[in-house]
Amino acid sequence: MEPKHRTIRVALAGNPNAGKTSIFNLLTGLHQQVGNWPGVTVERKNGHLEHGGYRFEVVDLPGSYSLTSFSLEERITRQYLMEEQPDVVIHVVDAANLKRNLDLTVQLLEMGLDVVVDLNMWDEFQGSGARLDLKRFEELLGAPVVTTVGHRGRGREQILDAGVRLGEERNARHRHVPITLGTRVEHLLVELSRAIERAASGTLPVPARYVAAKLIEGDADVAAWVHNRLSDGKTLLAEAEASRKHVRSVTGLEPARVIAEGRYGFVDGLLRETQVAPPLDRMELSRQLDRVLTHRYLGLPIFLGFMWLLFNVTFTLGSYPMTWIEALAGWLGARVADALPASVITDLIVDGIIGGVGSVAVFLPNIAILFLGISLLEDSGYMARIAFIMDRVMHLFGLHGKSFIPMLMGFGCTVPALMATRTLESRRDRILTALLVSHMSCSARLPVYVLFAGAFFAQHAGNVVMLIYLLGVLAALLLGMLFSRTLFRREQASFVMELPPYRWPTTRGLLAHTWDRTRVYLRKMGGIILIASALLWVLSNFPRDPRLADSDAHDPEVSAARIEYTVIGRVGKFIEPAIEPLGFDWRMGVSLATGFVAKEVVVSSMGVLYHTGENADEESQTLRQALRDPRYGITPLAAFAFMIFVLLYVPCVVAVIAVRREVGWRWMVFDVAYQVLLAWLAAFAVYQGGRLLGLG
Amino acid sequence: MSGNDTQTIPLDHVGSGHTAVIADLVGDPIFQVRLRNMGFREGETVEVVKQAPLADPVEYSIEGAHISLRRAEAHHVRVADVRPVSLAPCRGRRRRLRRGWGRRGL
Fold first, then answer.
1. Confidence band (pLDDT; 50, 70, 90) for A550?
2. How far apart are CA A516 and CA A25, in angstroms?
3. What is the pLDDT of residue A353?
4. What is the pLDDT, as a whole number, of residue A472?
5. Residue A275 near chain B (CB below 8 Å)
6. One domain for residues A87 and A215
7. Chain A CB contacts of B38 below 8 Å
8. Which of A232, A261, A277 is the last residue of a domain?
């Protein structure tokens, strides 16, 4: 019995739609760290705060409806609660959806945890005309209850005060009102928990009754735990099996269902006693809005209109600050170049570091605007409607309806698109979407298409570019089908999704969500990208050909010879045998290698390598003529194969880093490997197939 | 229109604008847990609100919440006592009653 815990460890639990994030932000403000749960790609958020002389350490558990071992999120939640034993669990409950949410409360209490029940969105509950006898509710539940409105910033003090009280009283009393699960199983539970208590002799981290209930439910994780940790494990499991049989024979139902019904029964009884007036249908307004927004014929065009708006605002409006950032990076580079003596180090700082980070920083406005838009869609409730409208289409890809947004964003830039995969709830959908997003041809690849289509298919340039885009979508479709039937065969995702009521987003919530996501990007720029861009600069500038040291750097012949001599140039030459069957020469190989930095670089590298000067762009007629020059031997067929290759191989180093950030190392390696392989195979098939058909 | 009370039919066969009482959940037990968590429990009344513009998924109203399920998923929910919303106990009147519940799932 400790008198005072100076530090109170708090875990936030709750259903996915209960407003857990807004409560977490409300509690911790800016003192947050975002990471992943060990070994998995589910986001983990930690935060801390001071209140009333206590330090609160808050961990945000993944959103879950229950504490079964079925979904990854639920397993993480359960494991954390069992092993870390937080001092206080704050269960964020959607007050307007009490019946469904309280099921989890009951399970938390069964685990013997100290729970503060936070009835969130209390304004909506009251607005719906519902009334609850809070005092009686608290009594019957046996846990302190507070009311909050997270997204409007109301209720912070109440939660924390309740947390302090509970943290102080911890161990000082045995509050836990046993929750009876109905006469059909009650006597079995009591017997089994006695046996478990005897076997464990006080070493259980959770109440014996909880273990007994889980065993009767047939929970494999808990059964394994009992088997390994308890001396009498085998006997206990046999006893549990006998109980399960008994339940089955008496009720004719699965024991898990009988136990679940016991919990629902408790919740029903609780609400019958305490809910003075039931809520009116809070969906009434949403229903009216949905008459239009998800209308049979209007729903789709309206949705496409919103998407057009989001896409345009992101990439058109974002292009203004983009040019400012570019100008700023250029100005900064020039100042540094002036201030420092001309040397290799200065070049590295100016071209490598400032240039490299600058080229990534330009995406920042896009990303901030995109995330503001996505937060707006999510907070208003329209995101769920998008999933509802588009699921039929996305399901063809093996994806969830919500994957539509990242896939659409992929046409703009793969990096924000990858970051948008966070809006997906299941791990499977996140990984699969991340793997497919890069085939939505990003805007940086367009210059390459424009250059080649203009040079080799001048009459049909527009159609050829369009065809490339469609091939990208087709590739994503086929790969989605393939991956969801192979890699993710055992993780069949369900669609089951709540359509929350429409809400006015609050400025506070929007800014918090946008900042939350944007800062991850910001932090990344300071770290990995800084290193990567410096490294790539070195590779594309060293070693230097000593014979060219004094030559005129502006002579196209000299710049071409220089790049040939560098590591990247050598890589290009080295891979020539590998790309020869695709109809590419070593210059194209070098351009592809530099394309790992960013796809825009492919065109400027070609400008250098085909002797037309460094400032070539995709509209440059001299570069187009140079490419067509018979001495390089590029046929239209090879040009088409090249475009296919550019479409399918890795978008850029930033995207690769983003994949690692979102789904982890192993998937990143897989992603790069399969994309390069696929690009090669597809280009090979196009080039050699075309030659067989006599096209080249 | 709403006969056949003793027999259950899959929820995806019930057309928009109808309510039905959940009789049983079938199939994958893991998925059953998910459905129960979302409110699809035996004895509850579920209303078929509408189908998505591309006919799948379908929006349901249960316990004051709106949940969407793919047709293949709704197939795991067996219901009885199908009737038009206007005839269901304690709900507001709705106009669209045209679609019969014989609509075929995918």
1. low
2. 10
3. 77
4. 94
5. no
6. no
7. 65, 100, 496, 498
8. A277
A115 and A83 in one domain? yes
pLDDT in tens, A376-396: 988 898 988 999 999 999 998
Q: Tell me the shortest Cα–Cα distance from B2 to chain A, in angstroms.
A: 25
**With contacts defined as CB-CB under 8 Å, which chain A residues touch B61?**
283
Residue to substitute from B24, B42, B68, interface A, most A β-carbons within 10 A: B68
Q: pLDDT digit string (tens) for B31-55? A: 888 888 888 988 899 999 999 999 9
- Kindly determine whether residue B66 and residue A283, on different chains, have CB atoms separated by under 8 Å: yes
CATH architecture, domain defined by B9-87:
Roll (2.30)
Mean pLDDT, residues A525-539 taken together: 71
Give the whole-angstrom CA distance, residue A212 versus residue A231: 16
Read off the DSSP letter of residue A402: G
Do residue A68 and residue B33 have CB atoms under 8 angstroms apart? Answer: yes
Task: Please compute Rg for chain A using Cα positions.
Answer: 30
Are A137 and A265 within one domain? no
Q: Which residues of A touch B73 (CB under 8 A)?
A: 494-496
- The arithmetic mean of pLDDT across residues A301-305, rounded, is 92
Query: Each residue of A206-233: b (16+ CB within 10 Å) or e?
Result: bbbbbbbbbbbbbbeebbebbeeebeeb
Please check whether residue A177 lies inside any domain of the structure.
no
DSSP state of B12: G
**The CATH number of the domain where A159 resides is what?**
3.40.50.300
Claim to verify: residue A100 and residue A203 sit in the same structural domain: no
Asked if A216 and A247 count as a contact pair (C-beta separation under 8 A), the reply is: yes
Residue partners of A403: CB distance under 8 A and separation at least 6: A394, A397, A421, A424, A429, A432, A433
Q: What is the ipTM of this complex?
A: 0.81
Evaluate whether A136 touches A492 at the Cβ level (below 8 Å): no
Co-location of A131 and A66 in the same domain = yes
Residue A93 falls inside a structural domain: yes
Hunting for tokens 């209960």 — which residue is that? A18
Q: Are residues A129 and A190 in the same domain?
A: no
CA distance A257 to A251: 10
Which residues from A are below 8 Å from B66, CB to CB?
A: 283, 286, 498-500
Mean pLDDT of the B14-36 span:
89
**Contact flag B33-A391 (C-beta cutoff 8 Å):** no
Instruction: Specify if A365 maps to a domain.
Output: no
With 50 as the cut, is the pLDDT of residue A425 above it? yes
User: ω before A651 within 30° of 0 (cis)?
Assistant: no
Q: Is A241 on the interface with B (CB under 8 A)?
A: no
CB-CB under 8 Å, B63 with A100: yes
Whether the pLDDT of residue A130 is over 80: the answer is yes
Percent of chain A scored above 90 by pLDDT?
Answer: 29
Residue A61 token pair: 């558990």
* Structural domain span for residue A56: 7-169
Cβ neighbors of A345 (< 8 A, separation 6 or more) are: none
> CATH no. for residue A236?
1.10.287.1770
% pLDDT > 90, chain B: 51
Select from A218, A253, A277 the last residue of a domain: A277
* A136 and A91 within one domain: yes
From chain A, pick out residues whose CB is under 8 angstroms from the CB of B51: 296
Helix (H) or strand (E) holding A177, with range, is none
Best-predicted range by mean pLDDT (A448-457, A492-501, A523-532): A448-457
Cβ atoms A377, A383 nearer than 8 A = yes
| Residue A28 in domain | yes
Q: Does B26 contact chain A (CB < 8 Å)?
A: no
Q: Is B9 on the interface with A (CB under 8 A)?
A: no
Structural domain tally of chain A? 3
- Any chain A CB within 8 A of the CB of B12? no
| B64–A283 C-beta distance less than 8 A | yes
- Kindly determine whether residue B73 and residue A496, on different chains, have CB atoms separated by under 8 Å: yes
